[in-house]
Backbone:
C-alpha cells in the first residue's frame, strides 16, 4: 500500500513540474484521476470515452512525466534539496534546545521560509 501511495505522490510531484508539457486532455484526465480521485469508469462516463481510453491516456501521461524526469531530474533535485533543508532544520532545533541563540533563530526562520515557499 505504501508503494502505491509513494508512486501516486511522486507522479503528482512530476505533474507539478512537467504537467504543463502534457496535452489539455492528458492534464484533464490526470487531474481527475490523481487529484480528484475519480475511478477510470467515472472518468470514462464523464468524458464519454471507454475505460480503456482513459487507462491509455493515463499510462501515456505517466510515461511522458517519467521521461521528462529521466532527462531533467528536476523533481529528484527538489526532493534532495528539501531533505537537506529538513535535516539542517532538525540540527538547528537540537542546537537551539541546548543554546538559545538569536542567530540560530534567524537561520531557522530562513530555512522555514525556504521550505514553505519551495
Residues:
Amino acid at each position: 500500500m505504501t508503494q502505491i501511495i509513494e508512486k501516486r505522490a511522486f507522479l503528482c510531484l512530476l505533474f507539478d513540474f512537467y504537467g504543463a508539457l502534457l496535452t489539455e486532455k492528458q492534464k484533464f484526465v490526470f487531474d481527475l484521476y490523481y487529484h480528484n480521485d475519480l475511478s477510470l469508469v467515472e472518468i470514462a462516463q464523464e468524458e464519454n470515452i471507454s475505460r480503456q481510453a482513459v487507462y491509455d491516456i493515463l499510462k501515456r501521461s505517466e510515461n511522458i512525466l517519467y521521461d521528462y524526469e529521466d532527462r531533467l531530474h528536476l523533481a529528484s533535485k527538489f526532493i534532495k534539496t528539501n531533505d537537506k533543508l529538513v535535516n539542517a532544520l532538525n540540527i538547528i532545533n537540537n542546537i537551539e534546545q541546548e543554546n538559545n541563540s538569536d542567530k540560530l533563530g534567524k537561520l531557522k526562520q530562513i530555512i522555514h521560509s525556504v521550505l514553505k515557499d519551495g
